[in-house]
Design goal:
Layout (H helix, E strand, L loop, with lengths): L4 E2 L29 E2 L5 E4 L9 E4 L15 E4 L23 E2 L14 E4 L4 E10 L8 E6 L6 E6 L3 H8 L18 E2 L12 E5 L9 E3 L1 E4 L8 E11 L25 E2 L5 E2 L30 E4 L1 H5 L14 E4 L5 E2 L5 E2 L3 E2 L13 E2 L7 E6 L5 E3 L12 E2 L5 E2 L7 E6 L6 E3 L8 E3 L2 E5 L2 E5 L1 H6 L5 H5 L4 E3 L1
Parallel strand pairs: 10-11
Antiparallel strand pairs: 1-14, 2-15, 3-7, 4-5, 6-15, 8-12, 8-13, 8-15, 9-10, 9-14, 16-17, 18-19, 20-21, 22-23, 24-25, 26-27, 28-29, 30-33, 31-32
Length: 485
């Protein structure tokens, strides 16, 4: 028969460890909320309580001298419906912090009361450090099993208790742990008879400490199962379950959330999630790891040169040492997401196609990358080099691949007199410059000129170009409108 305790703490509190922020090791250690008595605010239930079917008499076991008659037998009445609160022994008395107690029916009412189930519902999964059970006016349980569950459905043994070491083998098929219980691992399941002795006859205590020294657990538990067997009746005055919120070493406090009515980790170390179980956006330079007493294992910010808000961790990038961290070292595997200001690359350290970073402008500069602005007629692509030089088609030159050269493929500069020309453009074969009208230096007449295109050279009537305001300025510039005379 299994007894179950399932629990969560719902009350608000300040759950803080005594951390000294002046300690130089403070920011490098794991952070843990205070260990609380989770049972005090849990929901508790049982499958059997004395007096449920009417008043029943019970007598305490008392020590006496063998061979002499028993005097002053201490007998009482248990009645769930009694007007006298002292005759009521509900299961809630086991966790209310008073001297009241819960009591099971006597086995004289049926052998089924050899096995009693108690359920403590914590309503939230916690890290449990210890469980302490204090008996009231009866001896401690004999053979019983403490079990735990995460989901309240599937239970696993936490510890076995037996009347004798022999019972550990015959009843549970487990080698007994002789003497006071010791543990080789935090998750070791043992059988002990140390806390199942008949003496003392009342007010005995059953402690279960689930940690070695102070290794911070640990066991996750939402459900704990008790198997109580082989006593005249059972009584429990107090159940204490010491535990803390599961924050994986990344929170010092765990106050009550007024909306969810659950204790919520106040995450630090750049961690997020209900249990601080993941790194916050933008802090994935290294993989998430739980904090320990010796190492905080903070999540580290990705180095995106202020050009991205989020990133992700890539182990292959880390192995290849291609991601630069915030210290300028290639340690970690953070890859920036959605780089802004026309940047690209693992660390947003490059410019996107069609953009370049001016000389002496650092990655972190707020200006980012600026457009190449290459001529759509004179360049082979929208891209340019780090100095803003576009990649020009044959016969065209200049930073932006604009006109200003003649005699392809030699591409000789036009060398026009800028004081009397519209721009430094000229006839592609004759070198005739385009003059400004009424400059006083020369007079010009309308010519026709061939403009380069993706298919070769097309004839364009310069007069039509000037009249058609729908054409782009770059197309107009390709025409030599005037000739000096």
């Amino acid at each position: 028969m299994h007894s179950e305790i399932t629990g969560k703490l719902l009350s608000g509190c300040q759950c803080c460890m005594p951390y000294d922020v002046s300690d130089k090791h403070y920011f490098f250690q794991g952070l843990f909320p205070a260990i609380l008595n989770l049972a005090s605010n849990a929901h508790i239930s049982t499958n059997a309580t004395c007096g449920e079917k009417g008043p029943e008499m019970f007598c305490k076991l008392v020590e006496h001298v063998p061979g002499r008659p028993l005097r002053n037998a201490q007998c009482r009445v248990c009645d769930r419906h009694s007007a006298n609160p002292k005759e009521q022994h509900p299961i809630s008395s086991a966790i209310d912090g008073t001297n009241n107690w819960w009591q099971s029916p006597s086995i004289q009412n049926g052998r089924q009361y050899h096995w009693v189930t108690i359920t403590l519902d914590l309503r939230q999964v916690f890290q449990v450090a210890y469980v302490i059970i204090k008996a009231a006016n009866a001896p401690r349980p004999g053979n019983w099993i403490l079990e735990r569950s995460i989901d309240g459905t599937e239970f696993r043994p936490w510890q076995y208790y037996a009347i004798s070491d022999t019972e550990c083998l015959t009843r549970y098929n487990i080698t007994p742990r002789i003497g006071p219980p010791t543990y080789k691992r935090d998750d070791e399941v043992i059988c002990t008879s140390y806390y199942s002795r008949l003496v003392p006859l009342e007010h005995g205590e059953v402690p279960l400490f689930l940690y070695l020294q102070f290794s911070i657990l640990f066991f996750k538990s939402q459900s704990i199962l008790f198997q109580l067997q082989n006593r005249y009746y059972y009584s429990i005055k107090d159940i204490s379950v010491g535990g803390m919120c599961i924050c994986y070493g990344h929170a010092r406090s765990c106050p009550l959330d007024e909306i969810t009515k659950k204790l919520q980790c106040q995450c630090e170390h750049n961690t997020c999630g209900e249990s601080c179980n993941k790194c916050c956006p933008g802090y994935h330079q290294k993989p998430w790891r739980p904090g320990t007493l010796s190492a905080g294992n903070k999540c580290e910010k990705c180095n995106c040169h202020n050009k991205a808000e989020d990133c992700y961790y890539n182990q292959s990038i880390a192995d290849q040492k291609r991601s630069m961290d915030i210290h300028g070292q290639y340690v970690g595997g953070g890859v920036c997401l959605n780089c802004t200001q026309h940047t690209a690359g693992i660390n947003c350290e490059m410019c996107a196609d069609g953009y370049f970073r001016p000389l002496k402008v650092r990655f972190r500069n707020g200006l980012g990358c600026i457009p190449c602005n290459c001529s759509q007629f004179g360049s082979v692509s929208e891209g340019c080099d780090d100095q803003g030089q576009c990649h020009c088609v044959p016969g065209v030159a200049g930073e932006k691949c604009a006109l200003g050269y003649r005699d392809y493929p030699d591409c000789v500069a036009c060398d026009c007199d800028l004081s009397g020309t519209k721009a430094e453009t000229c006839n592609g074969t004759e070198g005739v410059c385009g003059c400004e009208e009424e400059t006083g230096i020369c007079t010009c007449k309308v010519l026709s000129y061939s403009a380069p295109s993706g298919e070769g050279f097309l004839d364009i009537d310069c007069i039509k170009v000037m009249e058609d305001t729908g054409l782009k300025e770059l197309e107009k510039a390709l025409c030599i409108i005037y000739e000096c005379t």
